[in-house]
Amino acid sequence: MSTKDKNFNQESKNNFFYPRSRYYGAFTPEHLAFNANLQEFAQKVAYIAALETGGKLTPQEAYRQIKSLWKPLKQSKKAMKIGKNPPSEME
C-alpha cells in the first residue's frame, strides 16, 4: 500500500469518526475556530454518552470526563471573546 493510499485511508477514518459540519454563522476567524472546538466537544460528549448508556462507563466517570472536556471549551470561548461583541447583521 502506497503512502498516498495510507493517508487517504487515515483521512477517511478521521472523517468517519470525527465528522465536521459546515459553519453557516457570521464569519470571523474566532467564530470559525470556536465552532471547530464546539464540534469536537460535541462529538466527544456523544461518545462518552454512548459508552455510559452501554454500561462501559459509570455515570460518575462520564460526568467527570465531560466536565474535563468542558473546561478547555469554556477557556477557548473566553480567549476568543465569543459573545462579547456580537457581529452586526451586515457581516
What does it look like?
With 91 residues, the chain is mainly alpha-helical. It is 67% helix and 0% strand. Helix 2 packs antiparallel against helix 3. It starts with a helix and ends in a 12-residue tail after the last helix.
Number of helices: 3
Rg calculated over all Cα atoms: 17 Å
Fraction of residues in helix:
55-70%
* Main pleated sheet: none
Order of helices and strands: HHH
Task: List the quaternary state of the chains.
Answer: single chain
Number of strands: 0
Write a concise keyword list for the protein shown above.
flat; 3 helices; 91 residues; mainly alpha
TL;DR?
This protein has 3 helices and no strands. By secondary structure, it is mainly alpha-helical.
Secondary structure blueprint with pairings:
Elements: H1 3-17, H2 29-53, H3 59-79
Helix pairs in contact: 2-3
